[in-house]
Amino acid sequence: MSHWHDRRLLDLFRIETPILLAPMAGSGGSALAIAVAKAGGLGSIPCASISVEKATEEVAIFRGAVAAPLNLNFFAHQPKAPTDADHARWLSRLAPYFKEFAVDPAGLAAAGGRAPFDDAMCRMVEALKPEVVSFHFGLPAKDLLARVHATGAKIVGTATTVAEGRWLAERGVHAVIAQGNEAGGHRGNFLTDDMATQPGLFALVPQMADALPVPVIAAGAIADGRGLAAALTLGASAVQIGTAYLLSDESVSVPVHKAAVKQARDDNTAVTNVLTGRPARGVINRIMREIGPLSPDALPFPLAGGALAPMRAATEKQGHGDFQPLWSGQAGALAREGNAESITRHIAEQAAALQ
Amino acid sequence: MSHWHDRRLLDLFRIETPILLAPMAGSGGSALAIAVAKAGGLGSIPCASISVEKATEEVAIFRGAVAAPLNLNFFAHQPKAPTDADHARWLSRLAPYFKEFAVDPAGLAAAGGRAPFDDAMCRMVEALKPEVVSFHFGLPAKDLLARVHATGAKIVGTATTVAEGRWLAERGVHAVIAQGNEAGGHRGNFLTDDMATQPGLFALVPQMADALPVPVIAAGAIADGRGLAAALTLGASAVQIGTAYLLSDESVSVPVHKAAVKQARDDNTAVTNVLTGRPARGVINRIMREIGPLSPDALPFPLAGGALAPMRAATEKQGHGDFQPLWSGQAGALAREGNAESITRHIAEQAAALQ
After folding, report:
1. Rounded to 5 degrees, what angle do the CA atoms B47, B49, B54 make?
2. B192-217 per-position pLDDT tens digit
3. Can you list the domains of chain B with their CATH numbers?
């Protein structure tokens, strides 16, 4: 594989192909990670919404299947405690749905999961020694980060602006993901909440590559060899791909999610906060259309989704994704079916031919 | 110049370098067009906000200076007549500024200029026979378009989504500009007003290239050879560049505009409708921050700017661009000073070396 001119990330991560699997909670697990690793890319396990036990199990499955480096991904958000007034405002915003679906809002369970990186997760990292640890929504506290560093793991952070990239580089990450506005799923923004100023990948990658002393990984709307080759030309050293794997054999996305990605167009996704409380890009559904895509009333992450659960359950059964995340980037239409190892190899070969 | 693999637009426009000068009212005229043409690209004259007489003069200057094809650009919007209530709402929204700047809103002049393509402009095209005619905001009425076709001019339209690209191709344009969300100035959108779903260039170009039977011109955040090479890799046959010329010797941008571009970052522009009534990307200024960037109260294009004129005049004199368009794409930070011919040659050479 001599066609990759920039070997910085290949050497850092000890991979053969400059493709990282985007960690996708609810869509990707060990099977997808194994497939991407077999093709020479970097597999990842999204650990933010599963237990330490489950994550440990996933890592064991990966280690048993392939001798390749692995990336564990965690969230590093600062949880905000909503006031009673915040709760009341959100429930009142959703009142028409509670009426339509005969839901008693008094009986709602809180939205669980999606905890920030903590001591227990850090102990897991110390025990399992993943080759790469990546964080979304900034970085964990200094002492936790130092402990991850001490394991020898390469540390990766996500930036949606050059300013965030500089912030991460100053704190010692080994590489920065430049997440363009096109990207599916949660935006990694942590220094700004302003969605009106988020740069697209075409603007972000060269400016980030010029500004940072560490290699840049491009993410957002990269779904084929054209995207990989173009990102490298813009100055990225590798790419992170998510949406393009959602229809693969190894994807564990629920059927309504896969159906939405099959209907994805360049212009039918939006960044919304009404599904989880943080901005994330997905295919537009009823709740995004009717009370979003961005609402000041949404409870803080990850709590906004809790109150949607009964409506989600009712509509998902009927084959509609009206009240749940249908995460997708703006290139969902380029996602292909098949096994993820072949998809990865095909993207790499197409890019190599274009270089 | 054998390093351009895709010669479709080079042959169509009879140019040597796959770079089109973006028509920029208020920033570019014959001098900039001549410079880009001398470097082998396609020069353009923005005709939408100048008189037929002035445009005719500009074309004569271009023809006298260089033997090269020329692109005349026009707007094709459907003007909307605001009601008295619309006027009252906009003036009421601006009332605090009228007070601060001691302006009597009764004495405001209507915002003029920016007329859609009409019979007089069409007669100019028939007389001057520009090699390329491009339209923003859709296309003019069938009979006018047929008259332009009959002159032998190659016709170019701008699309912000694949759907708009298909619409243009079905109506016989020879090429389509894929305007990514990163692009500076007015968005060309005409089938949708929804700014939340506008695709970034990385997503738009490959999907547009796959969908259209005509060549695609990429526009938005392309400011150096990396951008040109990456756009061609994604499937574009050429690029259109605007912001990267704003600091050139031939740019006629006012000083506050140039100063804003010098301060541009990846994350300090936004798409706003408060300056003209249509969504356009520029460096964030006071009026965008305080009542925008998008406001439902703005008068329809091009009328919103009229009421801002007194505040603009007062602040511009003090060296501030608080109430005027500071159009810039998301790669304004990559704009360089110098003559536009050298800038163009440099971009082309850098891209050729990266191919």
Report:
1. 60
2. 999 999 999 999 999 999 999 999 99
3. 8-79+115-251+335-354 (3.20.20.70), 81-112+265-327 (no CATH)
Express as a percent the part of chain B with pLDDT over 90. 95
Q: Are B283 and B269 in contact (CB under 8 A)?
A: yes
Q: Report the alpha-carbon distance of residue B209 to residue B218 in Å, rounded.
A: 10
Predicted local distance difference test score (pLDDT) of residue B112: 64
Residues from chain A that touch B235, judged by Cβ atoms under 8 A, are 226
In the DSSP assignment, the letter for residue B43 is E
Mean pLDDT of successive 10-residue stretches along chain A, which has 355 residues: 84 98 96 98 96 97 98 95 94 97 88 85 98 98 98 98 98 98 98 98 98 98 98 98 98 98 98 97 98 96 94 96 98 98 98 92
Minimal C-alpha gap between B221 and chain A (Å):
5
- Mean pLDDT (chain B) is 96
CA distance B141 to A252: 50
- Per-residue model confidence (pLDDT) at position B307: 94
ipTM of the modeled complex: 0.97
Angle at A333 between CA B268 and CA A272, to 5 degrees: 45
> Do residue A182 and residue B199 have CB atoms under 8 angstroms apart?
yes
* C-alpha distances in Å from residue A189, one per residue of A22, A136, B48, B124: 16, 8, 39, 50
Q: How far apart are CA A301 and CA A76, in angstroms?
A: 12
DSSP track, B258-296? HHHHHT--TTSEEEESTTTSS-EEEE--HHHHHH-SS-T
R_g over Cα of chain B: 19
- 8 Å CB contact of A203 and B226: no
Q: Does residue B2 carry a pLDDT above 60?
A: no
Helix (H, G, I), strand (E, B) or coil at A118: coil
Min distance B14 CA to chain A CA atoms (Å): 25
Q: What angle do CA A165, A167, A169 make, to 5 degrees?
A: 70
What does the mean pLDDT of chain A come to?
Answer: 96
What does chain A come to in residues?
355
d(CA A102, CA B301): 45
pLDDT tens for B104-116 read: 998 887 766 788 9
What tokens does A143 get?
Answer: 């002492």
At residue B36's C-alpha, the angle toward residues B351 and B320, to 5°, is 100
Cross-chain Cβ contact A203/B230 below 8 Å: no
Residue among A161, A200, A230 whose CB faces B182 most closely: A200
Confidence (pLDDT) at B17: 98
CB contact under 8 A, A200 and B222: no
Q: What angle do CA B275, B191, B227 make, to 5 degrees?
A: 70
Q: How much is the average pLDDT of B50-66?
A: 97
CB B230 within 8 A of CB A234: yes
Token code pair at residue A82: 């909503």
Candidates B297, B163, B188, B182; CA nearest to B244 is B182
Helix H or strand E segment including B177? strand B175-179
